[in-house]
Specification:
17% strand, alpha/beta, binds adenosine-5'-diphosphate, 6 helices, 189 residues
């Protein structure tokens, strides 16, 4: 069951992730970690060339895993780079890999004593993951992590557009409703 205090730590934010002055922003990177399009391109452009230089030293990242760098010219303190799965129809372990991106990123943030973390909608752009399913996985995984670990106190789910914001609102509402139902059934005599 997801407690109310966990849901209160999860915030939907519509806008550009590079502008957020949080402890860590998460980058939806590709396995090379050497920059790309979408949110990855925006982060590299805004952080500056030193980010690419540090990324070269990391020698890439496997799908579902995460690595950390400084944030250079960004207002955030650190960037956590994670590699989402490319959608292949749902039979290539995409769900577990996407879950792993959120979980590993939060674990890495906690290991570095970072308490506020902002995520883009990983894999839902160029990688083609259906946005509703991705939003549910994002919300469920973050909620589960926060239920089991109390160190991180705010997680921003960043929606770049209105449609993604709507999808996140509905995913969070679904999670809250499911959690209320479980609470009610447990309170039955
Ligand atoms: P992926 O390759 O993992 O699909 P993309 O960068 O193509 O990554 O897209 C992931 C999500 O990030 C999409 O929902 C896209 O709209 C969103 N996005 C793109 N630019 C930004 C930005 N500057 N801030 C926040 N989200 C962004």
């Amino acid at each position: 069951m997801i407690r109310q205090n966990v849901l209160e730590k999860m915030v939907i934010y519509r806008g550009d992730i590079v502008k957020l002055g949080v402890d860590a922003i998460v980058n939806a990177a590709n396995p090379s970690l050497l920059g790309g399009g979408g949110v990855d391109g925006a982060i590299h452009r805004a952080a500056g060339k030193e980010l690419l230089a540090e990324c070269y030293t990391l020698h890439g990242c496997a799908v579902g895993q995460a690595k950390i760098t400084d944030a250079y010219a960004l207002p955030a303190l650190k960037i956590i780079h994670t590699v989402g799965p490319i959608w292949q129809g749902g039979r290539a372990n995409e769900k577990e890999l996407l879950r792993s991106c959120y979980w590993q990123s939060l674990s890495l943030a906690e290991a570095h004593r970072l308490t506020t973390v902002a995520f883009p909608a990983i894999s839902t752009g160029a990688y083609g993951y259906p946005p509703q399913e991705a939003a549910l996985i994002a919300c469920q995984t973050v909620a589960q992590y926060l239920s089991e670990h109390s160190f991180i106190h705010k997680v921003y789910l960043v929606a770049f557009d209105f449609n993604t914001e709507k999808i996140y609102k509905s995913a969070l509402a679904q999670l809250a409703a499911a959690s209320k139902e479980t609470a009610n059934s447990q309170n039955q005599p």
